[in-house]
């Protein structure tokens, strides 16, 4: 009754429903400031309460619950008082309320602790996971070693994962039942568990053979997916048939390696011993992928375990593999490659789903991670050809070594392409074959983080660490990974923690550097024996079953070993990973298709390139209008600059149904602002107008995209893209030519020798802006000497100059083409020739900077028409050519220096005394045309002029070829030798240029 004496004002309506009473009471409990039990109407409530307490029937039944709560022990008078209320609560009642309050707070505290405990295991349980089959290291161990020595460590559990245990949650709480939060699936169908059971299940999920890192993911749906797949009770259970399949796959993986070791004990092969469960992982991914709609898998792999993977996953014939172990004469020309670098492809029938799956293993070199972006590019290209815009049908799998994954920067460059709209493959699966060592380097000296896979967490990718000796756990994470990738179209990383049984290679002695590790390894059973014991104990199989499987596979190995003896010639063609079916058969090998275009096409493309979008629909920068006005004026005059030459080349190929992909850091506008193939709306953020996309209604796709600031990864991506088909033109343009320096491994391992090693042709075009123009050493030279030095050409061998097919034969024999062009028409024909050839060759182009807008770098429209072609050499056509006997000096050159020579001889009025011959195609070297020009000026002194320093540029390549051809010494006009490619001091640049000019006009 004391309650109602404190009420000053009544705000509660008399006739309300029970739900309203409860709602209002809830508001009371939550806030004193909003109490409704106050005011003069308390007398009414008090009188009604007295009647209700005597006889409940005397008051409307809707008040029963309200008065029960008022008179019950759960209501606290303090919650209804305000600062004006008299204090009339007795001491005993206050004590009881305080006790209830304390108990409630304790219960809340315990429930919060349990929630934190669960989250701690989800976020950090992987640190205690038993993922190392050698049991030499865990993530927690790495973390504890980084703690300060003075820090008191009571135990790994409390410090590393869940500090609630032993502090808030103690032994007396272990059998207390707690409600499970929504953000966990450990309960399955149960909603409450004892603390003891909660911890037990968390330990099984997060601290067993699988360590999961996923709490860094941004997407809540991704988090929930991982919880469901990892926490749901029984999720790791396999059926009897699945267990038998795992056993058979392990048997094949282990016994293949044993067979290799028996037959070729001294042969280097980089076997999979210690990591054979990788076959189980890949086979599970392959099976599950077909169920999820995947039709093609493009794979990359380091050399360790490649032979096993080729046989057991890619289904390469054992006969072909075994034949690789003996020396044989190759059928085709080329350098070939060692067996553990080779690739293959197959349309494999998957019995589990009765579907065919294309599996392609890319060739790759010992530069372990160079292949990573290449495979991503191949996958993207295949998605394009299949019209697979969401990555539902084509997927990439990239296998890494642990030391390479954490140590090679191209891994990061590849990963960060994953969500870029113009480079994404909608999720790749990355598998780390974690040997826990890099050659002879321990992880503690190889990386600064507990896991080799930590770089992947930058990219919103879940990481699943798994013990390689637990075959069922390996199969489970594989299934989770493929389902995650197909559902969310994001990258996922599988860290298969295993070991090397025999060191870096079969020739290596690992005890030199890792004696403790290898003492442990020598005591380890193979994974098939470990799993056999498990399923034998479960009664899944009998020993007779296992013996039968082992005998069947051994018989198969012996059969193919005998067949391999009959193979007498090595075929490099058998190892092509991306065949161009029908292309070579459909081409005339002795003919280059027409590269000129008709006047109608030229006019259509040129006028389209000068036309701005309607101003009412798209607001273009005012500077663009000025550029378009200049273009229109040139079109009217029938002249093309470099930008117009590009547009005519690309537009005509798009008309011819050739897919073009042009990428680089600034390609949409052009580094020097010459191209402008994409306009940006000046009033709407993100709105663009792509000029050449609307050229023809039925044209092919023009994929023009600015790229991220990484040359290694992007160039590798475009190399892979170019491998996909001969019916596309892939162009990568460096911001400046020297930017290609950071992508050198791609040039060295894939572009320059890919055809020689693996019969992988590519029509890739690499555009490198080049020119010594006072911009300093970093933005001047594209280092043409590097690319020329890698030309597979003998300088002492002059081809048959009477052979009319010599130019085409030279191109067919070349490993790539190197050019330094000076006219838009020549650029146009060169680009179109890439598609017109009956084969494909990489093209390295030194492109202009100053020349992009210089009048010397222009061409009349007639040079683009039908009947015209690429000029390997541009001969003198001025006054000197009219009176060749009086010419005193014949200067051969390449590139921008032609502008300097031409302007200088005009200035000095020496046009009739100095003849200029521009070598546009440096390799293959145009011996025939150069000899004709040399013979045309019988009295002239011969020189080669370059703007580069003498120890750089084309001189070191052309010197011997010119002198062998002419039978005489050739003068070099150049800057003096230098360690840097150019000076950054204007005074020195001017001095060098002055001296260069003096040498040019010196007779």
TrEMBL record:
Its EC number is 1.2.4.2. GO terms for molecular function: oxoglutarate dehydrogenase (succinyl-transferring) activity; thiamine pyrophosphate binding. It is an enzyme of class 1 (oxidoreductase). One of its GO terms (biological process) is tricarboxylic acid cycle. The 2-oxoglutarate dehydrogenase complex catalyzes the overall conversion of 2-oxoglutarate to succinyl-CoA and CO(2). It contains multiple copies of three enzymatic components: 2-oxoglutarate dehydrogenase (E1), dihydrolipoamide succinyltransferase (E2) and lipoamide dehydrogenase (E3). GO terms for cellular component: mitochondrion; oxoglutarate dehydrogenase complex. This is 2-oxoglutarate dehydrogenase, mitochondrial. InterPro entries: 2-oxogl_dehyd_N (IPR032106), 2oxoglutarate_DH_E1 (IPR011603), DH_E1 (IPR001017), KGD_C_sf (IPR042179), ODO-1/KGD_C (IPR031717), THDP-binding (IPR029061), Transketolase-like_Pyr-bd (IPR005475). It comes from the Eukaryota. It comes from Danaus plexippus plexippus.
